[in-house]
Every structure is written in structure tokens, then in C-alpha cells.
Write a structure and sequence with these properties.
171 residues; mainly alpha; Protein Binding, DinI Protein, Chain A; 5 helices
């Protein structure tokens, strides 16, 4: 994602340079993408949606972890007093729970990463559409992500608030 943004910024500067060298003034605007993502209402909706989507699996992992912790404590506390067969059985159960925790935990993290990426992609599409619309309405030739790319940007060319309003209306 960062490479894509940097490539787009480089391309934008090259395009601006070639337009300027042709004698055509270039009108530039900036956006603050992290600000936009944090302030659009869809971000909160996506967060809630993903939390509810994964809450069941997280609860299952917590339950497994509680069982694992309880058995480990039981072994520490009573292991020396247990019959050999009971101790072996408890140790095997601890290993089984540990394996389940690891497998299910990794699967959950992978699924969460995939879903977050999907939802971010949808938000980025909406933001891109809004940026293009605002830029065309206000007559900007070039829009760059000001975070990390611009050392200074006048507030008059920052269209982040307009983009936030437009994306917020689109739900």
C-alpha cells in the first residue's frame, strides 16, 4: 500500500513538472488520508461490523485459553500429588488445548487481516471517488496525500474536510 502511494506521488510530481514546463499552471490540493479514515462514519461502522463478525471466535479462544490456564495451574499446584495416569492425562489435555489455541488463533488472525483489508479496500474506493469529485468541483489538477509527502501545505488547498463530508453522505 505504501509503495503504491509513493509511486502515485512520484507520478503526480512528474506530471505536475511536465505540465509546468509546458507553461500550464498546475493547481495542487492535498489530503490527509489518516484524518479522512479516522473521521468518516463508515470507519466506525466497519469496526463494529468486524468486531461482531469475529466476536464468537474470540469468545471461543478466550474459553479455550481459560481452560488451558486452569489446567496449567492445576498441574503446578497438584501435579506432585496426582496419580501418574491422571498427571499424564492432564498434561496431554494441556498440550491439546495449546495446539488448538495456536491453530485457531492463527486462523482468526489471518481471517481478520483478510477482512480488514477487504473493508479498507472498499473504504479506499469511496475515498478515491470523493477525492476525484471534490478535485474536479474545485478545479484541482493534482491531489497528493500530504502526510509524509508534503513538508507544508496551506489549509486552502487541503480538501480532506470536503472528502470526509462527501464520503459521509455516501454511506
Amino acid at each position: 500500500m505504501k509503495k503504491l502511494v509513493n509511486t502515485l506521488i512520484l507520478g503526480a510530481f512528474l506530471a505536475a513538472g511536465s505540465a509546468a514546463s509546458a507553461g500550464t499552471p498546475t493547481s495542487v490540493a492535498v489530503i490527509n488520508l489518516p484524518q479522512i479514515l479516522s473521521q468518516i462514519p463508515q470507519s466506525a461502522q466497519v469496526k463494529k461490523k468486524l468486531e461482531s463478525e469475529f466476536s464468537g471466535r474470540q469468545a471461543e479462544l478466550k474459553k479455550l485459553n481459560d481452560q488451558y490456564t486452569a489446567l496449567v495451574e492445576k498441574l503446578k499446584k497438584n501435579g506432585s500429588y496426582m496419580k501418574e495416569q491422571e498427571q499424564i492425562s492432564t498434561q496431554r489435555k494441556v498440550q491439546e488445548l495449546q495446539s488448538q489455541l495456536q491453530i485457531k488463533g492463527q486462523a482468526l488472525m489471518e481471517d481478520q487481516r483478510r477482512r480488514v483489508a477487504e473493508e479498507e479496500g472498499k473504504l479506499m474506493d469511496k475515498i478515491q471517488t470523493a477525492v476525484e469529485k471534490v478535485a474536479k468541483q474545485r478545479g484541482f489538477d493534482l491531489v497528493i496525500n500530504g502526510v509524509g509527502a508534503a513538508v507544508y501545505a496551506n489549509d486552502s488547498i487541503d480538501i480532506s474536510k470536503d472528502v470526509i463530508q462527501l464520503v459521509g453522505k455516501s454511506n
